[in-house]
Amino acid sequence: MPYQRTPSRRPLGRGLGAMFLTLGLSASLGACTEVPASSEPEPLAGQSQSIKNGTVWNPWTQSTQTWTRNVVRIPGCTGTLLNREWVITATHCFPNGPTTDPATLTASLTLADGSVASSRAVELLFHPQYASGVDVALLRLEDPIDPGVASLPLYSGTTASLLGKSVFCAGYGAIATGGTCTDGSDCASNQFCKWGVCMTRNDGPLRTAWFNIIQDTVDPVMWYQFDVPNASGQMELPGDSGSSCWDGTGLTGIMKAGNTTNYNRQTSAEAFRDWVNGIATPTQLKVVNQPGASCRTVQGGQLSYGTDGEAFNAGSGLTQLVCPIQRTGDAGYANVLDMPRLFVLDRHASADVCCHLQSKNPSGKLITTTDVCSSGSSSGYQALTLPSVYDNTTWSQFSLVCSVPGSTALGLSGIQTYRPRLSMR
After folding, report:
1. Looking at the whole model, is its pTM more than 0.85?
2. The sheet that has 197-200: what strands, in order across it?
């Protein structure tokens, strides 16, 4: 069941000397204003910092802690890819709260070759108890990013069972330079002043540290704290907001905040695990294989069928195929549609087969995903994976829609077969 406890107000301990890690992901200092929570210590607003003295970490050259290959940058904070579509982070990373337009948010993952894969968000969800302190949000990506680890589990135990554990944490952000200051004029032009120390903004690398978990003094179920500074003088700072930690079995929590002198609190997985799993890995109702022959052309295109159930564009020009998907499940109407496999035939020298999923309501409302296209021509099939579509209106109709190029000397292009997966969240 979702966590229900309402915490009481009580300040935390230690000051700046206890810090070790700051994980902020953006050079913008105004991006981490916390959504108000009336019954908990106030976090520092408007900072972009990362693990103080954190270890520079390239997850692609490391053979351990490979989960860090899923750590992404989001505006002002850090996030972690749970799978190719969902990023987990903190609600206070979004100063406009649940009304934040997800289209203004981008997640970026550094890949093994140093390039960056980025995707705009298409959905932003806040935990139902975010105002009471469950500081966790989910972003669904418009164009899924294949993470370094296909899926990451959440820690399955209780917050109490985490006490005394050592966890590995990772994030992006600024670094304390050691120079003292009273305001920004005391620091170099590329630095800012916080807590009497000059800091540099995000310098690019992912930074990591080990922390020992201790009991939270305000709510020992919803949150836990780190015993900071650690032996290396490290601790988390405001820009680490939304970052996660790993105990060897799963993600143990999401970086929340502290007070103005101690930034070492995480929201424990026990408080948000059921909610996150119900959305990021919804209950599967039905998976079916459907032949391309289920598809129909739009506006009278020339369609032919193969002996194995393929649907081909027999005309000379581009045509659009609509492939219906029966929206049923063994336990009711599905509200999530995704397509883990779609096999297309692209035999055109210059044009591609491009497909998306859509949901259409009788009222006229249309929800579509972005197109995923084949790459180059081939005599054999190509496998595509499409983004998911979510629609909770029971009368909406799910479909696969593909644009298929016309016939060429190499042969006909079309849809071989598709595998819709229907789920409920």
Report:
1. no
2. 175-180, 197-200, 191-194
